[in-house]
Amino acid sequence: MKSELTTVTSNERRSFLKKTAYVAPAIVSLTALPSFASSGSGYRAKDHDHPIRNAKKDWLKSKNAYKVLRSEVRAKIAKMREARREGDKSDYAIKRAEIKAALQELKKARAGVKEKRAKLRLLRRRGRQNV
After folding, report:
1. Would the CA dihedral through 89, 93, 95, 99 be positive or negative?
2. Full-model pTM
C-alpha cells in the first residue's frame, strides 16, 4: 500500500515539476515597465484643452505686467517730486507729462487685469455648474 502511495505522489510531483518548468520562464520573461508615483491618472492634457488654466495664465501675466508698470510709474513720480524740490521747472513739466501718459497706460492695464480676472471667474463658475 505504501509503495503505491509513493508512486502516485512521485508521479504527481513529476507532472507538477514538468508543468512548472514550462511556466516559470514565461513568468520571468514578462517585462514590467517601472512606474513612478504621480497624482491623477497620469494624463497630462495640453494647455489648449484647459480654458481655465489658460485664463489663469493670461490673468497672472497681465497682473505681473501691471505691477511692473505701476512700479515704473511710482519711480517716475519720485523723480518728478525730486525735480520739483530742486526747482527745475522744465524738467518737472516734462516728467509730469510723462507721468500723465504713463497713468493712462496704467489705467488700461488695470482694466485688462480686471477683464481677465472676470473671464477666469466666469469659466470657473461654469465648470462648477457642469459638475
Report:
1. positive
2. 0.54
Cβ–Cβ contacts within 10 Å for residue 59, how many? 20
Dihedral of alpha carbons 84, 82, 91, 75, sign? negative
Quick count: other Cβ atoms within 10 Å of Cβ 83? 18
The answer to whether the beta carbons of residues 37 and 91 sit under 8 Å apart is no
Helices 89-130 + 51-86 axis angle, to 10: 160
CA 44 to chain centre: 10
| Whether the Cβ atoms of residue 52 and residue 120 lie closer than 8 Å to each other | yes
Per residue of the chain (131 residues), give pLDDT as tens.
Answer: 555 556 657 778 778 777 776 665 655 555 655 555 555 555 555 545 678 888 889 899 999 999 999 999 999 999 889 988 988 888 888 989 999 999 999 999 999 999 999 999 998 888 777 64
Report, in this order, helix, strand and coil percent for the chain, each rounded to 5: 85, 0, 15
